[in-house]
Amino acid sequence: MPLDLEWVSKVRVNTQAVLKRAQQIQGRNKNKKQWQAAWLLRAVTCIDLTTLAGDDTPGNVHRLCMKATQPVRYDLLKSVTTAAVCVYPSRVADAVKSLKAANSSLPVASVATGFPAGQTSLKTRLEEVRMAVEDGAMEIDIVINRTLALTGQWEAMYEEVCQFREACGEAHMKSILAIGDLVAMMAGSDFIKTSTGKESVNATYPVAIVMVRAIRDYFLKTGHKVGFKPAGGIRTAKESLVWLTLMKEELGDEWLSPRLFRLGASSLLADIERQIYHHVTGRYAAYHQMPMA
Ligand SMILES: O=C[C@H](O)COP(=O)(O)O
């Protein structure tokens, strides 16, 4: 849609109310036994299983892909996968190859646009998006230009995001960072994502509440449903339940599927798998019994 700065300028956040709501949501979802297991399985299906490390290799990306296709031990659970795998652009081809060899249609997501800082030229950032798409990425997690956002240059940020949208082609575009949500949605983002996972503060519930309410406002005004992806520092099964509760309560059941909700996480799955192991066997497994692949 065209940029509507009047709408952006009218946005107000009641910080105290948001903090209170965040507390409230963390106290919800006391489901136990099979209900808790069901919620955890839902969380698994929404994970973008991620590796974004300087020492990523075809080998560890391959293991990640195998884990994504069989996230919970085969003897405990069959036919569930994560939503996607998420890697650096340089590793997209490796992930596509591994998944193809495993006969899997799981999408490969790639961070791009100079992730995590976004401090490279626009030309370079656009080229990076195109290359990742060319290598087979079906989802692109872009970093918005924080310099433009922090200095209030919304038109320029909107133009950049529109160009990323175009460079993504058919690939879904997820835009990283709470700041500038509305502008990113106006410019065609399919998802908005809290953080890169590389900042000292990443996905927090109060910020998420502001973001999902921006998604709701955007939906009410345009009829267009934008997805939400919290990412960074999400490590425990319990946290995944809070995130699902937040989505259910703020946006409703429709936002509880991978089409509109993802958890960006590199090390959450192990804890969920442990909880599911406990649910099935009555015992807790050691972490080494839940291998990466
Ligand atoms: O986009 C995903 C994040 O980088 C993952 O962050 P994490 O490694 O803290 O789970």
Which helices and strands occur, and which strands form pairs?
Blueprint: H1 5-10, H2 15-26, H3 33-45, E1 47-50, H4 58-69, E2 84-87, H5 92-101, E3 108-112, H6 122-134, E4 139-143, H7 146-150, H8 154-168, E5 172-176, H9 181-186, E6 191-193, H10 205-222, E7 227-229, H11 237-251, E8 263-265, H12 269-281
Parallel strand pairs: 1-2, 1-8, 2-3, 3-4, 4-5, 5-6, 6-7
Helix pairs in contact: 2-10, 3-11, 3-12, 4-5, 6-8, 10-11
Characterize the main sheet: 8 strands, parallel
CATH classification, class level: Alpha Beta
- CATH homology-level superfamily: Aldolase class I
Helix content: 40-55%
Distance between the termini: 43 Å
Task: List the defining traits of the structure above.
TIM Barrel, 8-stranded parallel beta sheet, EC 4.1.2.4, deoxyribose-phosphate aldolase activity, about 290 residues, alpha/beta, schiff base, Aldolase_TIM, single chain, cytoplasm, binds glyceraldehyde-3-phosphate, about 45% helix
Provide an overview of this structure:
The active site is at 193 (schiff-base intermediate with acetaldehyde), 229 (proton donor/acceptor). Keywords: Cytoplasm, Lyase, Nucleus, Schiff base. The protein is an alpha/beta fold and 293 residues long. Helices cover 47% and strands 11% of the residues. The protein has twelve helices and eight strands. It has helices at residues 5-10, 15-26, 33-45, 58-69, 92-101, 122-134, 146-150, 154-168, 181-186, 205-222, 237-251, 269-281; strands spanning 47-50, 84-87, 108-112, 139-143, 172-176, 191-193, 227-229, 263-265. Strands 7-6-5-4-3-2-1-8 form an eight-stranded parallel sheet. The N and C termini lie far apart (43 Å). Bound molecules: glyceraldehyde-3-phosphate.
